[in-house]
Amino acid sequence: MDWTEFTRWGTWISQWAQNYHLTLRNRPVRAQVKPGEIIAQLPVSPPEQGEPMQQIMDDFESVVMPGITHWQHPRFFAYFPANAAPPSMLAEMLVSTMAPQCMLWQTSPAATEMETRMLDWLRQAIDLPNHFSGVIQDSASSATLAAVLTMREKALKWSGNQQGLSQQPRLRVYASSEAHSSINRAIWISGIGEENLVRIPCLKGRLRSMDPVALEAAIKADLSSGFLPTGIVACTGATGVGSCDELSLVLQIARDYQLYSHVDAAWAGAAMICPEYRQLWHGVKLADSVVFNPHKWLGAQFDCSAHFLANPEDLVRTLAIEPEYLKTHGTDGIINYSEWSIPLGRRFRALKLWFLIRSYGLEGLRLRIRNHVNWAEGLCLRLAEHEHIEIVTQPILSLFSFKPKGLADAAVIDYVNRVNDDGRIYLTQTRVDGQIVVRFQIGQFDATEADVQIAYDVICELLPL
After folding, report:
1. Which tens digit of pLDDT belongs to each residue from 15-62?
2. Is residue 143 included in any domain, yes or no?
3. Taking the CB of residue 355, how many other CB atoms lie within 10 A of it?
4. What is the DSSP letter of 430?
5. What does R_g of the chain's alpha carbons equal in angstroms?
6. What is the residue range of 261's domain?
């Protein structure tokens, strides 16, 4: 492909993108293919000779598109969103064109300095104190892993990376029973081990918060048993049904026992740009580490995770390796963000934040979040009035759960599959107090109140009466 052909196809793809988004409501939300159907259409061996771009694009339409679940569909009500607002997409096109590798300040000064400023914009937007500094990670899972590695090293007085864990005391990390499975993975990778992740029960009530009394009792019991309490992972807006720990109590316990604390607000953190929702993480200023994903609810294209640190020197001490070829000589006071993250290589992720925030302004982004929350609360109230529907958990921001009355777990899963096979909306299930329930959340960037009305219609129409 030469640059003339690139221009022609680049223009074509831009037009395709516009048409795709404008007609998304005409497509089923979830891919309607069977396992193996896509791979059966792909040649077993690669071509020896190049093929014309027209043929490639034709195959894209016929092979790829039927197997895509449309995360940008306005009636995507499953999981949490992975949004891609138009300004963010344009920024990513520019980044893909320049293709910079932004591991060091000297390898792209604009990327490093814009990342510093954009994370401070986000810090101000969610009202974190100004002693927090930020870095963009690829995902909240990576931020949590970085936090767990840091709490491990601090607890071991910075000896774990050098000496390993074989001669060390058994470390213990604490998280609620509602916390995300990425914490388990971080525990595995860090070498702490699954058996040393202590899941603390949650209190009854709307927020399903970690029980602070049980947390402190677990820490004391581990100290008495010769274990080494290491850190606490708290959550605001956990993935299942939006559980929010009472951070003012949990993080104070972390301070009392000198444990490193990390707050996973991957989804709900975006809503903290709205002052009226900040009561959900009251006390967050006590945290050592906080993460939320602008690629979920703010419209930044995946991947883009904002990781804030009260003391970034702890993270750098845990992760930084600086061979001679990575040193920047003759310049003091610069930041090399590769020392703040697990991968050495880094993409220019800050540009899409710059485009996004400038295009909509914080008030434009707040409006979308407030609409989603209000529409979810309204839908929950309407469903609660239906004689065959039971609301299981009340809304936390734009997330709640329900189930058709009287159905066993297998029948609830069958109902979810029937809704998703219908194609008009996309839902998923979760487990609450041992029972399978239907999970519903609103967060797609272009969703409207009419899309929520369609969700109500589909949910009721397909009930197994």
Report:
1. 999 999 999 999 999 999 999 999 999 999 999 999 999 999 999 999
2. yes
3. 21
4. E
5. 24
6. 93-355
